[in-house]
TrEMBL record:
The keyword Oxidoreductase applies. Residues 27-491 form the Aldehyde dehydrogenase domain. It comes from the Bacteria. The active site is at E269. Keywords: Oxidoreductase. The gene is dhaS_2. It holds the Pfam family Aldedh. This is Aldehyde dehydrogenase DhaS. PROSITE patterns: ALDEHYDE_DEHYDR_CYS, ALDEHYDE_DEHYDR_GLU. The lineage of its organism: Bacteria, Bacillati, Actinomycetota, Actinomycetes, Mycobacteriales. The keyword Protease does not apply. Belongs to the aldehyde dehydrogenase family. It comes from Fodinicola feengrottensis.
Amino acid sequence: MTLAFDEPRIQEVVGALSRKMLINGEWVDAASGKTFDSINPATEEVLASVAHGEAEDADRAVRAAREAFEEGSPWRKMPHGQRGKVLHKLGDLILEHLEEFALLESLDNGKPYAVAKAADVPLAADLFHYMSGWTTKIEGNTIPVSAWDPDAYLAFTLREPTGVAAQIIPWNFPLLMAAWKVGPALAAGCTVVLKPAEQTPLSALLLGELAMRAGVPAGVFNIVTGFGDAGAALASHPDVDKVAFTGSTEVGREIVKAAAGNLKKVTLELGGKSPNVVYADADVDKAIAGSAHAIFFNQGECCVAGSRLYVEESIYDQVVEGVAEQARTIQVGNGLDPNTTMGPLVSQEQFDRVTGYIGSGKDDGAGVIGGDRVGDRGYFVAPTILTGTKEDMKAVQEEIFGPVVAAAPFNAEKDILPVANNTNYGLGAGVFTRDISKAFRTARRLRAGTVWVNTWNVFDATLPFGGYKESGWGREMGHAVFNNYMETKTVITDLS
């Protein structure tokens, strides 16, 4: 195996990175002095030891963010156009450090370096570039009153930043999820305390360094590295105005409970069990390639993974065999190997979870294509198809978050929609068909925040993203995201 980077280059990039927390513009140790290890999931070796933030550190970060938000602070006084230039500069700096970010994502998360370089990092930069343009376009309205003399009153609205935002992000797209959260919050004028996942803290630390270099004032963007207790301390903190969380539905419920004390605003981007409906009139080759990409992209560690594959009966065997053939061509290995197209799962915990669901599906009577451990070191699992699945199977109903798809046939359009919607989740869905009327009819009836037609995994900073049902509250990206980070104030003036 030939790696894209030799050990000296890896050590250079990781060694140049601060392992401390960013609070009030300074890199600081945890108050306790404790650290924790970040593990390379491809080798099971320690990458770096990082500051272990806890409740006291969360409090320090919140106090810094509060001070940076108050009237008279440099962030509040900064002209909106200048704020936009700072965010645009941060996007530029991300692209200037494309290689370093992609390397850190591959080392820390396991994903292929080539994928991080082509997708994760450029999309994160684009998010900041896009949000930078919104700083000068957040506007209120002048509204004529309806029950009073319209000439006697002037009524208008102002859009104002919510305040201090605690943002807790997952490990599957570490840099990109940080960008999705931090970009709009800063564009709105909020201040931020970011808590990255303990499995993947490294790219967030580089992002913090570049944010300061771009001109983000001290205290505006803070980073607390640590475990779930640090996130809980942020969610319950009485001086946090807003908490944004991406992760599992189970933890999302705990976030809601923790936020109840001061009734802080909450947005949640949670789990998914996305149905992928393939009709017999689909372009079969396109449907096969799209269905494989839907589930095997990013090791299946994707909240919108097309993990329930429903295929019209007349082409079911053809599509399943086609997806299986696509799976057999996937090269599972170290993300730094240029030949790798699927890296390891992120941790031993996730490896055990995914293999447990594969075993559960087999025990419940499903056929299993793939599903083996790859190698004897690292958290590698071969892409897997569970065939002949039933709706009551655990592997069909629960989110696996790995490269495992449950496949089943269906007979007619009228039959599949109730089945496709038979889930507590509603984050993503897809449909493959050449019939445009059927495509839109199906898209309208699928209960999901995003529906792809004849494609999958197309994201853009302009497009709102979020879920129905237990997949969350609120939307990321697009102009809709500013509902998460802004208050509307109504001002009425008597002109008489």
